[in-house]
Design a protein that fits this description.
Blueprint: H1 2-8, H2 23-32, H3 40-51, H4 65-77, E1 82-85, E2 88-89, E3 100-102
Antiparallel strand pairs: 1-2, 1-3
Helix pairs in contact: 2-3
C-alpha cells in the first residue's frame, strides 16, 4: 500500500516516461536529419511558413528565433545536437553571435 502512495504523489518531472518533444524541437531535429549544418534562421523561417496565414507579415520568422535558440541550447546541453560557431563546437552555456546547428559527430 505504501507503493501506491508513492506513485500517486509523483509529478510529471519525477516520472520516467518520456515526454513528447516541443514543436520547436521537432522542427530542429527534422532540419538536421540530412546531417548538414543548418542555420537557425532557416528553421525559424520553416516554422513561420508552416504557421502563416494570408495576413501574416513576411518577417514572422523573427518571432521564432528566440525559441529556436533556447531549444537549441537545451538540445546541445543534453547532447542531441551541437552548436557550431566559427567551425568549432561551441559551449551551449557561453556563446554569442552567429551559429549553426548539426547532429553530434561520432
Amino acid at each position: 500500500m505504501a507503493e501506491d502512495k508513492n506513485t500517486e504523489n509523483e509529478t510529471p518531472a519525477t516520472k520516467t516516461e518520456a515526454l513528447p518533444d516541443d514543436p520547436i524541437v521537432t522542427y530542429i531535429m527534422a532540419a538536421l536529419e540530412s546531417g548538414d549544418l543548418v542555420s537557425p534562421n532557416a528553421i525559424a523561417q520553416t516554422i513561420a511558413r508552416d504557421r502563416a496565414t494570408d495576413k501574416t507579415p513576411a518577417d514572422l520568422w523573427l518571432k521564432f528565433m528566440t525559441a529556436v535558440r533556447q531549444q537549441a541550447i537545451h538540445l546541445a546541453r543534453v547532447g542531441r545536437i551541437e552548436i557550431i560557431r566559427r567551425g568549432k563546437v561551441a559551449d551551449p552555456n557561453d556563446f554569442k553571435g552567429l551559429y549553426k546547428l548539426r547532429l553530434p559527430r561520432k
